């Protein structure tokens, strides 16, 4: 996690690039043994790879979303509708998303063999069944983001506090900044009695102290500490990003409820260059009244999500932004006595699209009644490899952590090759 | 002076001297104090050579030894007293004084609490109960191996040892979590990759090692005793530990065993294997308990990994860096930077009866501990010997919390009250001060606690924002009676003011240049003198010199 303090920004791009698999440029660099042209470096800097995670917390029903089975034993009351991809049908609860389907692909054969919220969530985030590993967002922040970004590199927007340690051994610089809805984080305004000039003076005094102390000493820790203040000062300057009200047009297009506003904020943060933005939508743990709840929840989800996806596509951002829609697991085909569906890690779906992902594909399938995976079974380990392969990271390489050899992806799994563009 | 049950350090140290030589194969060499033997092996004892760095000056030693032994920087009075002490044995005297200080016991509680439970909270035994139990152990200087044995064998039914069961209870007896942490924290080996297959890179970490450890605990579970309204650890009499590699389809079965030591010999299963059969109303108590074998097996002298791990952890606690780094990655391809030194420390820990205070004392007296963090001039980095330069180590959240409250004068504002309460409660002022300022320290600890036990220096923007803008941190700069800002405001002479500021924050006198720097900051300030003082206090409080143990 410590920067090599001796090297120039271009070196960072190069070292980051050495992680990039299958990149023509990387090959050229290795072959020619010389620095890449500055122009190419700038282009990478401008359009660095980004991630949008949309987490449907509680476990969305695959049967009411990506893998509908109308008219079957466990199919439930809702129908399936055609999408913008010929031959691909999804639940009628997602009409707006269906119109954007050409930006997405579906994996219908996920079996994580876990039916516990916490464990399922960890597996989906870490790509490992157990242990102290970083989340998708922290891995992205570490290897995809520019070193000097204005805002934190991994920001999550959620209205529920879930305890989690996203960065593990990568260190807090890559851990998530949690926003509870479209609100600014704590301590972004200067205290009473301290105006901008007083702030400048005290920071200069601090730096003067540090310069004297650093003289004749090793620099890494001192610079890491200084960097935390630099990042803090940048965040104070960009407070506007967090508190800006959505425009009237956006409210019209996305909706006025909380999740809609969070989606607008997510778009803003991605435009501001945040490497990974995660938006959570809560309330899918439908042990009772599964159908009413999905009607309501997906009704809220559909328009803002589809609008966000469409905006990213229209603004050219989807080319370098991976989008993933996921839960901690799916829901049982069997409908219980309270018209609910229970936890089900055995045969469910996730949707993904954007950067490096083949659009409009459907991978794997469940059997006729949706009770088991019938073809191309994958788990969260395969998905993790797939996300980062799509983003150009060599998931077989080790994490950049001194003293430890930890492969980025679980060596026991591999990417879903059919999905990689 | 008061009725503190704390033993004088001489008694603690002398009590262990008799055991010091007990098993020693060669008394002739063992008679040299440990710190001299450390010096011989560390290679930096001879301070004449530029490649061995420089000996730290008294002020550097003062701040470092306070942070490492009592977990807080010295007060201005303590700093002055030491810096004006001309005795040739002043460093050793200070070490012995601090080892007998009640704050040292609390510092050990903080250190081992975080080391063992890694800031987990809740789950059946409260943190206060657990920490008070640890406090009792360190107050009595209970041998470390005995502490570990109690932690691993307590099942929560005996009130006296119930708090010790927190190690297992806080992890809910989750077999994978407990197995991984037994390996990491007690054996210095993070074998999590060996859970699903032999470790792909570390050839020493095998799946059977992981499951050998797992077999000790996998039959145990948390039982909710509704009658007594408490959770205890119960155990089943059956359950095999099997494993299969996700790579090779290799399958295995193992009984309980520690790494490559022989498996524990188990008795024939009796017809009735239970003392108490597991049921809805009773937690299982088997006649033969696998979990009960764990505490002896792990602390058995044959298990060298145990003493190497704690020798390395004590070394890291003092030097800021283990002889093996990361602390939980002991394996053949990541050898100690100084294998002989680690062997010496590990064997000594065993021979002296796991007396932590004695180990800490000897490490503190060694020359390698007393290196300066300054690089010698005109000597290239790569020609320096290992450990010739002291590490710059971020203060732990607890050290940072108590040092900040000390430096800005929050502690001073509570001294009178703490002494009064100490009399009333028959405790000591240090303990009462902890109670009085506990919630303020807690805010700091929470803000600065790393998000993961395996992360390095976690300097985050959120922490900087807390120091810059939070109401709590700004409150420390208010000119209330007794705070540092108040004292500085009442000091007319600018060099006396600079001296008070530097002694409070950095436990050293300012240089002439620094006195001028303070004078300029005061004179050139566009507003009131108070604002200038507050800015100076803030800048020193947030400086790297304050944030790092150096």
Summed up, what is this model?
With 421 residues, chain A is of the alpha/beta class.
Could you please describe the fold and organization of this structure?
The complex is a heterodimer of chains A (421) and B (550). With 421 residues, chain A is α/β, with parallel strands linked by helices. In chain A, 35% of the residues lie in helices and 14% in strands. Chain A contains 13 helices and 14 strands. Chain A has helices at 9-17, 24-32, 38-46, 95-99, 117-126, 136-143, 196-214, 220-237, 239-243, 248-254, 258-271, 290-314, 380-390, and strands at 50-56, 80-82, 89-91, 104-110, 154-157, 177-179, 276-281, 321-326, 330-331, 343-344, 348-354, 362-363, 365-366, 373-375. In chain A, strand 13 (365-366) and strand 14 (373-375) form a beta hairpin. The two termini of chain A are 31 Å apart. Chain B has 550 residues and is mainly alpha-helical. Chain B has a two-stranded antiparallel sheet with strand order 1-2. In chain B, strands 3-4 form a two-stranded antiparallel ribbon. In chain B, strands 5-6 form a two-stranded antiparallel ribbon. In chain B, helix 12 (207-217) packs across helix 13, helix 23 runs antiparallel to helix 24 (494-506) and helix 23 packs across helix 26 (529-541). Residues 1-27 of chain B have low confidence and may be disordered. At the A-B interface, helix 7 and helix 8 of A face helix 11, strand 7, helix 21, helix 25 and helix 26 of B.
Most extensive interface between two protein chains, with residue counts: A-B, 66 and 67 residues
Mean pLDDT of chain A: 87
Mean pLDDT value of chain B:
90
Instruction: Count every beta strand of chain A, where a strand is a DSSP E run of 2 or more residues.
Output: 14
Report the principal-axis shape of chain A.
globular
Q: Which structural category do the helix and sheet elements of chain A fall into? A: alpha/beta
Q: List the uncertain runs of chain A.
A: 1-45
* Rg calculated over all Cα atoms of chain B: 26 Å
Which word captures the global form of chain B?
globular
Helix content of chain A: 25-40%
Order of helices and strands of chain A: HHHEEEHEHHEEHHHHHEHEEEEEEEH
How many strand segments of chain B?
8
Largest sheet of chain A: 8 strands, mixed
| Class by SSE composition of chain B | mainly alpha
- Roughly what fraction of the amino acids of chain B lie in strands? 5-15%
Which strand order spans the largest sheet of chain A, edge to edge or round the barrel? 6-5-7-1-8-11-4-12
**Largest sheet composition of chain B:** 2 strands, antiparallel
**What fraction of the residues of chain A are assigned to beta strands by DSSP?**
5-15%
Spatial strand order of the main sheet of chain B = 1-2
Q: What multimeric state do the chains show?
A: heterodimer
Helix content class of chain B: 40-55%
């Amino acid at each position: 996690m410590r920067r090599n303090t001796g090297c120039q920004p271009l070196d960072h791009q190069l070292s980051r690039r050495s992680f990039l698999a299958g990149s023509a440029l990387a090959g050229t660099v290795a072959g020619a043994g010389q620095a890449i042209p500055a122009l190419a470096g700038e282009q990478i800097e401008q359009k660095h790879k980004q991630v949008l995670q949309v987490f449907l917390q509680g476990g969305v029903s695959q049967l009411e979303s990506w893998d509908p089975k109308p008219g079957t034993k466990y199919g439930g009351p809702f129908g399936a509708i055609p999408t913008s991809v010929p031959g691909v049908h999804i639940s009628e609860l997602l009409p707006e998303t269906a119109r954007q389907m050409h930006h997405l692909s579906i994996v219908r054969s996920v079996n994580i063999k876990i039916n516990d919220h916490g464990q399922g969530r960890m597996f989906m985030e870490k790509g490992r069944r157990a242990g102290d590993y970083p989340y998708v967002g922290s891995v992205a922040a570490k290897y995809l983001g520019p070193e000097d970004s204005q805002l934190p590199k991994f920001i999550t927007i959620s209205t529920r506090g879930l305890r989690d340690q996203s960065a593990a051994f990568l260190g807090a610089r890559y851990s998530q900044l949690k926003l509870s809805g479209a609100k600014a984080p704590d301590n972004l305004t200067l205290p009473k009695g301290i105006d901008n000039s007083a702030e400048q003076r005290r920071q200069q005094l601090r730096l003067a102290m540090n310069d004297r102390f650093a003289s004749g000493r090793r620099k890494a820790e001192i610079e890491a500490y200084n960097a935390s203040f630099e990042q803090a000062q940048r965040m104070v300057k960009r407070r506007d990003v967090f508190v800006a009200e959505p425009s009237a047009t956006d409210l019209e297009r996305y909706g006025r409820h909380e999740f809609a506003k969070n989606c607008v904020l997510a778009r803003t943060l991605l435009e501001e260059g945040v490497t990974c933005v995660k938006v959570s939508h809560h309330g899918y743990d439908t042990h009772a009244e599964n159908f009413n709840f999905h009607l309501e929840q997906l009704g809220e989800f559909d328009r803002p999500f589809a609008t966000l996806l469409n905006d990213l596509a229209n603004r050219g951002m989807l080319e370098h932004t991976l989008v993933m829609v996921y839960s901690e697991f799916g829901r049982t085909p069997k409908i219980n006595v309270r018209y609910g569906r229970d936890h089900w890690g055995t045969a469910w779906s996730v949707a993904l699209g954007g950067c490096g992902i083949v659009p409009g594909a459907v991978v794997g399938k469940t059997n006729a009644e949706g009770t088991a995976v019938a073809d191309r079974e994958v788990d969260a380990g395969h998905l993790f490899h797939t996300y980062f392969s799509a983003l150009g990271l060599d998931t077989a390489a080790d994490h950049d952590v001194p003293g430890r050899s930890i492969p980025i992806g679980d060596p026991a799994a591999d990417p879903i090759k059919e999905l990689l563009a | 002076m008061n009725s503190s049950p704390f033993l004088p350090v001489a008694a603690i140290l002398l009590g262990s001297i008799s055991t010091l030589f007990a098993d020693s194969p060669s008394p002739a060499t063992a008679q040299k104090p440990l710190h001299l033997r450390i010096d011989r092996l560390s290679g930096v004892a001879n301070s004449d050579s530029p490649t061995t760095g420089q000996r730290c000056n008294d002020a550097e030693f003062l701040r470092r030894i306070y942070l490492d032994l009592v977990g807080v920087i010295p007060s201005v009075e303590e700093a002055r007293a030491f810096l004006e002490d001309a005795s040739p044995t002043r460093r050793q005297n200070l070490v012995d004084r601090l080892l007998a200080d009640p704050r040292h016991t609390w510092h050990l509680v903080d250190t081992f609490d975080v080391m063992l439970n890694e800031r987990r909270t809740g789950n059946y035994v409260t943190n206060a109960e657990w920490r008070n139990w640890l406090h009792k152990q360190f107050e009595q200087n209970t041998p470390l191996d005995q502490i570990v044995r109690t932690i691993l064998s307590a099942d929560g039914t005996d009130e006296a040892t119930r708090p010790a069961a927190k190690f297992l209870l806080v992890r809910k007896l989750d077999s994978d979590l407990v197995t991984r942490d037994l390996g990491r924290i007690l054996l210095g080996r993070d074998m999590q990759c060996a859970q699903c297959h032999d470790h792909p890179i570390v050839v020493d970490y095998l799946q059977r090692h992981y499951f050998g450890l797992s077999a000790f605990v996998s039959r145990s579970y948390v039982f909710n005793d509704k009658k007594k309204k408490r959770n205890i650890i119960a155990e089943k009499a059956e359950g095999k530990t099997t494993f299969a590699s996700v790579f090779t389809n290799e399958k295995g079965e193992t009984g309980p065993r520690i790494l490559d030591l022989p498996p524990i010999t188990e008795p024939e299963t009796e017809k009735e294997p239970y003392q108490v059969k597991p049921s809805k109303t009773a937690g299982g108590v088997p006649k033969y308990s696998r979990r009960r074998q764990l505490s002896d097996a792990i602390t058995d002298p044959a298990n060298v990994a145990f003493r190497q791990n704690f020798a390395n952890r004590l070394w890291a606690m003092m030097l800021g860096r283990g002889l093996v780094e990361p602390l939980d990655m002991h394996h053949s391809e990541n050898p100690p930077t100084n294998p002989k030194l680690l062997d010496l420390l590990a064997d000594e820990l065993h021979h002296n009866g796991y007396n932590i205070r004695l180990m800490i004392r000897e490490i503190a007296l060694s020359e390698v501990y007393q290196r300066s963090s300054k690089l010698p001039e005109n000597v290239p980095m790569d020609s320096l010997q290992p450990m010739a330069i002291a590490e710059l180590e971020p203060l732990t959240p607890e050290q940072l919390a108590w040092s900040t409250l000390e430096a800005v004068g929050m502690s001073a504002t509570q001294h009178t009250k703490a002494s009064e309460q100490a009399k009333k409660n028959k405790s000591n002022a240090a303990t009462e001060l902890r109670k009085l300022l506990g919630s303020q320290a807690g805010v700091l600890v929470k803000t600065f606690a790393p998000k993961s036990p395996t992360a390095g220096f976690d300097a985050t923007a959120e922490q900087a924002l807390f120091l810059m803008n939070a109401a709590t941190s700004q409150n420390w700069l208010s000119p209330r009676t007794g705070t540092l800002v108040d004292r500085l405001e009442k000091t007319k002479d600018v060099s006396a003011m600079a001296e008070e500021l530097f002694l409070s924050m950095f436990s050293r006198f300012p240089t002439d240049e620094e006195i001028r720097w303070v004078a300029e900051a005061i004179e050139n300030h566009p507003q009131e003198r108070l604002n200038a003082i507050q800015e100076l206090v803030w800048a020193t409080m947030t400086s790297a010199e304050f944030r790092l143990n150096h």
